[in-house]
Amino acid sequence: MNRTIRGLVLGAALCVLAGCSSSGDYTVPDALCGVTVGSKPLAPLLPDGEKLAQSPKSISPESSVCSVSVDKKQAVYVTDDVTDADTDPVAVQRDALARMGNPQKAAVGDDARIADQGGVAVSVCTYQGNRRKFVTLVDLTSEHPVPKGTADRRKALESFLRAYLPKAMEAKGCRK
What we know:
Elements: H1 3-18, E1 31-32, E2 35-36, H2 39-42, E3 52-60, E4 63-70, E5 73-84, H3 89-92, H4 94-100, E6 104-105, E7 111-115, E8 118-127, E9 130-140, H5 150-172, E10 174-175
Antiparallel strand pairs: 1-2, 3-4, 4-5, 5-9, 6-7, 7-8, 8-9, 8-10
């Protein structure tokens, strides 16, 4: 084996052993549109690229959206809503979840569904003294969502929702 090939093989092996990640040239933030969740749960959902941008928008005190783009292409879209206690957010999001592909029940919050390209998680809480539900919907909007493998992507979505939901609830003033 010549030196060049040996060097490439050795370099690839070292990268695998060191756990190199493909998060791109940007730094994955610890906060997603003001919700501190840590970079680890978010990183697997972001594609390679050079520049990450976040666009938070408050619709009302009970509702907000967050768009995350990499190289000016939307990759992740998150909505947070405080709803009435009688509302079934999973039923309300049935069509969106079907569009995301094969939604399955998941153990996040009080109710959750993880699909191939997104998910929804719900937790009962107290908001301004009233019993309500807090809902987070995550949509991987990229044409080629990551992680590439569907099983890995579902696992990453579930991990993200498990970490994000309680922090987003707290940020909105919704107490368990």
